[in-house]
């Protein structure tokens, strides 16, 4: 393909895309004015029947809780995949890669980064716990809060020496946390079935709308998902960091 | 028109930032630009009244994704180009 032909090809496709985009965009309803039947149904369901003030959490963890179970295990499977790819094989001697560049210096963490990370660890951790536990009340929930909690762990990694970090956050503990979080979703679902309902059909008292104890199983699922996501993201990132640290220690 | 000024404004910002991501050639700088783009997308979702999506977008698009890109880059650089 010559350069001239490629340019013409691009210009024609770009023009076609622009025209179709403009046609589609010009016929859209104004933002926030659309009234969908599904929206009305969800609104009629969330606060009156489920006692959940965040409609998105109500849909994700109650109305279509089974879908979200699948979504959670997408993350679980990807983390397991990353760990599998990054694992150290027996015949591969520690830190000695045949194709590594000699004399590459890993820059040390600057004091400014350490101080900033130290200041941010506690607020980030608290914010993560807040987001996880208030999923049924306000925007947020296990997925978002879990990533924030994992960020707090990484900030801890940034401000501490690697050995201290490992003592505070043992890999085994993170692994067990992730597995427990993933299992919790299924166990909660099974408990619902055991209590006489369907899988993931709420059987707990719904509590007062807008309070932290409202929503029945949704609050519990959020806790489990938060643990799973936090552990999963932390494990995936630590799998990469582990290798870099070995490099640094040589 | 002024009613939608905020929405239109953030859409323009997002479009500019997305172009900037494409035009950045160095992968390490691109990770930082994509983080900024993720933050703008998060603000866009907030303006379009989807705070749940905004939160996910900020934590994944502005933190997790650039971090994974940087870590992968560090690993690739460490190993060097395959010959």
Structure description:
The complex is a heterodimer of chains A (250) and B (83). With 250 residues, chain A is an all-alpha fold. In chain A, helix 4 (65-86) runs antiparallel to helix 8 (171-194). Chain A starts with a helix and ends with a helix. The mean pLDDT of chain A is 85. Chain A has helices spanning 3-26, 37-50, 55-63, 65-86, 111-133, 142-159, 162-168, 171-194, 217-249. Helices cover 70% and strands 0% of the residues of chain A. Chain A is globular, with a radius of gyration of 24 Å. Chain A is built from 9 helices and no strands. Chain B is mostly helical and 83 residues long. Chain B has one domain (2-79). Helix content of chain B is 83%, strand content 0%. Chain B contains 3 helices and no strands. Chain B has helices at 5-23, 27-47, 51-79. In chain B, helix 1 packs antiparallel against helix 2 and helix 2 runs antiparallel to helix 3 (51-79). The termini of chain B are far apart. The model of chain B has no long low-confidence stretch (mean pLDDT 86). Chains A and B meet through helix 6 and helix 9 of A and helix 3 of B.
Summarize the structure.
The complex is a heterodimer of chains A (250) and B (83). By secondary structure, chain A is mainly α.
SSE blueprint and pairings:
The complex is a heterodimer of chains A (250) and B (83).
Chain A: H1 3-26, H2 37-50, H3 55-63, H4 65-86, H5 111-133, H6 142-159, H7 162-168, H8 171-194, H9 217-249
Chain B: H1 5-23, H2 27-47, H3 51-79
Helix pairs in contact in B: 1-2, 2-3
